[in-house]
Amino acid sequence: MSIRVERQDAVATVTLDRPRKHNALDLADARALTAVWRGLRTDRSVRAAVVTGAGGRAFCTGIDRAAVAEEGAVPQPHAPFAVEDPLLSIGPKSNDLWIPVVAAVEGMACGGAFYLLSEAEFLIATEESTFFDPHTSYGMVSAYESMAMAQRMPFGEVARMALMGAAERISGRRAYETGLVSELAPEGGALGAALRCARTLASYPPGAVQGTVRAVWAAKEAARNQAMAQAPPLIALGNLPPEQQAELFRERGRGRGGYGVTFRTR
């Protein structure tokens, strides 16, 4: 299994452990993350959590399309009003977990990684980290991802990230300046900084902490839920057919980058 969970000092550290795949998630990983968050709901020994990626090169790069293709395509509903997305339930809030979760980001965080990052209470990253959303470059609508990140970033920033696709990456410094990241740690230090925060949170009375987490989320939950209800038809109508998406990904694999795009960081 590519998901590791370690418990110490009332803190659970959840690590995505596929560094050779930039911590991309296959279907088993997605199911394992759901099980981890649901298991922590009843674990009284854990009062806070940290989520991170192994290897230092990436936090997470979303779904592993090659692995999913090997397992077989995810069946989709016949109507454009629902989408079967295997990453929709990989986050803690989607599993009704209300202990505080801190994300520690080193390296790349893109696409499906935002399902996790958008459900953490706050993010700690390094200047070397980069955030981007490649969906549009490969003929896919960025719906759930951009809707979730719009709750954490200024409108212009999330719109630019979602629309520029693979052509542009947001640096850790820029993410900090716009409020997506709450703290910049030195290279290799994001996990240590996140654990220090989590241990502090775990030392407080859990009812007060979890109640505060719930209160903060209540302030924006209605808008988020209303937006995400619009996602399935937008995806169904805007996505290229799967075979055309696959061809664009094959172009990237051959070094052509899809549409000949070379990314830049800002």
Would you kindly provide a written description of the structure presented here, covering whatever features stand out?
- By secondary structure, the chain is of the alpha/beta class.
- It has one domain: 2-enoyl-CoA Hydratase, Chain A, domain 1.
- The chain has ten helices and eleven strands.
- The strands form two sheets. It has a six-stranded mixed β-sheet with strand order 1-2-3-5-7-10, with helices on both faces.
- Strand 2, helix 1 and strand 3 form a beta-alpha-beta unit.
- About 2% of the residues have low confidence.
- This is Enoyl-CoA hydratase/isomerase family protein.
- Belongs to the enoyl-CoA hydratase/isomerase family.
- Pfam families: ECH_1.
Total number of helices: 10
Helicity, as a percent range = 25-40%
* Cα-to-Cα separation, first versus last residue: 35 Å
How would you spell out the order of helices and strands?
Answer: EEHEEHEEHEEHHEHEHHHHE
At the fourth CATH level, what is the homologous superfamily?
2-enoyl-CoA Hydratase, Chain A, domain 1
The general outline is globular
Protein name: Enoyl-CoA hydratase/isomerase family protein
InterPro entries: ClpP/crotonase-like_dom_sf, Enoyl-CoA_hydra/iso
Family: Belongs to the enoyl-CoA hydratase/isomerase family.
Pfam families: ECH_1
Considering the chains and any ligands shown, give keywords for the structure.
single chain, 266 residues, alpha/beta, 6-stranded mixed β-sheet, 5-stranded mixed β-sheet, 10 helices, globular
